[in-house]
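User: Some background: our group keeps a shared notebook of sequences we're curious about, and every so often someone picks one and asks for a predicted structure to add to the entry. Today it's my turn. The entry only has the sequence so far, pasted here. Could you supply the structure so I can complete it?
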Amino acid sequence: MHNTYKVILHVKDSQQAQFPEPISISLKVKQHKLPALVQQCRKELMSQGINVVGQFDSVSRKDWPTFSSVPLDQDTVKAFIGIKLFNDPIKLQYPVTLFMLPLPRQYFHQVWASSYISFMAALFILYSSQNIVAATVVALFGVAVSAVRRKLICDKHYTQGITNPNEIVISENSLVIPRVYFEDKQVRQIEKSAIKSINIEWNWYKAGDGDSALRQYRRPFVFRVNIDVSNGESITLAGQTFDSNKFVIALSQLGYSATLTQIPKIAAVWRFYILIPMAIALLGMTGFGLYSLYIRYLV
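Assistant: Of course. Here's the predicted structure to add to the notebook entry:
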């Protein structure tokens, strides 16, 4: 369940004045942290010379089931993104990170060729000298060269020598989506009135293990922003290619009708494609080095 606790403050100039409309602030906070938040709120108000009367006893909680769809509104977006980021100025331009866009299969070995060579060189160094540090440096150097190689190939493949800015632009009336998202390499300008639906697929980027209460949610991670247009076109924007969290805020603030859909998918799965092979390689090199030492000195 996702919980949004709403704190309502009634502000008036004097004891005789009538209550104005309440000021409502939505905060994403876990239940066991609510007393500390209340105390902090009280201290902050008193430090500004505001007389705090009464108790912060009443909690209005808004729940929605995990892995479900909810409309994007003022409450759900604050629970999704956090009130601090929500209060930042609306961002209207979103540069696209070409490095994070998918490449055709034909480029796969071109990107990773340096990593293949560096790992073979690392194994040779380990076999000949048992120098684990040198072997590790060589292996990491190959991975770094692959990363640079991928960036250069992405830049060439997606820009094709054209220097137009690659950024998503949102306004109160339209969305402008750059050419890099389309096979025909044509920019799309979509009027708000022509948008049938916007569905945001996301899940938590988590730290911790299991279902322990100590699990910490770092931040929401947007996988895809799916846009259906009245002309029948469906557009998918990969969340990791631009600042999608702030884009969700802008959609809400500028009055776009959208849906937040939590999906059971691991966020930033690319971490494992990098970290797991590196861990296996390091364990293999360490084991090989220890075995070589055993053969050389103990047998």
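Suggested note for the entry: The chain has seven helices and twelve strands. The radius of gyration is 26 Å.
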